[in-house]
Amino acid sequence: MRFEIVNSKGKEIKVVPESLDDLWHLYNIIRPGDLVFGYTLRRLSERQDVSRSRKKEVVRVRLGIRVEDVEFHEFSSTLRVKGRIEYGLDEGLGKYHTISVRVGDEITIIKEEWLEEDLKRLRDAERASKRPRAIFVSLDDSEATVAVLTQRSIEVIGEAYRHGTKETEWGEKEFYGEILSMLHNVYEGNNPIIIVGPGVAKEGFIKFL
């Protein structure tokens, strides 16, 4: 999470979420009555768009909406902020609109008063974004699970199952290779990796590495 206090009174804060966890934090920070500015897509009216081609009817604009509802959609990695437009295109003032916030999108949040718990959440999220996430590998002789510890929960990345016969060492290399492939997908260069499981299975995978 990156954030910046914009004015001296501290009512206006610019925020850029850098992970799904950050979107979750914003879901808990933004409340009905707040004013949120963000970029969104709007379709121009025929009167305004008379000289434009159909391909240019939808434009990207910065709107300010008075929040009435906030939804966190984990599976689509989106935060949806709903409310009436107070700033932006003249033709849209007073109409309902939803700003969809994704990782990397910049928004500005204006509150009459920022609660200390909300400011603390922003500071904690900023610090957490600089710490590497712990990766867990839990395995036994026949199956394994790879998961990442997030600020919200433990996120399962994937599972691997061992197949084969004694003649092929019960598919040992393929099994370990599948686990390693999942690790490569989430390893960022400095993540601590915790491997847990029965001694033989754990030691076998460590030797494979």
Please characterize this protein's 3D structure.
The protein is an alpha+beta fold. The chain has 2 domains: 2-128, SH3 type barrels; 135-208, eRF1 domain 2 (Nucleotidyltransferase, domain 5), CATH 3.30.420.60. Helix content is 23%, strand content 37%. It has helices spanning 20-29, 116-128, 172-186, 199-208; strands at residues 2-5, 12-16, 35-43, 58-73, 78-87, 96-101, 107-110, 135-139, 143-149, 154-161, 193-196. Strands 1-2-7-3-4-5-6 form a 7-stranded antiparallel β-sheet. Helix 1 (20-29) packs antiparallel against helix 2. The chain starts with a strand and ends with a helix. Residues 47-52 have low confidence and may be disordered.
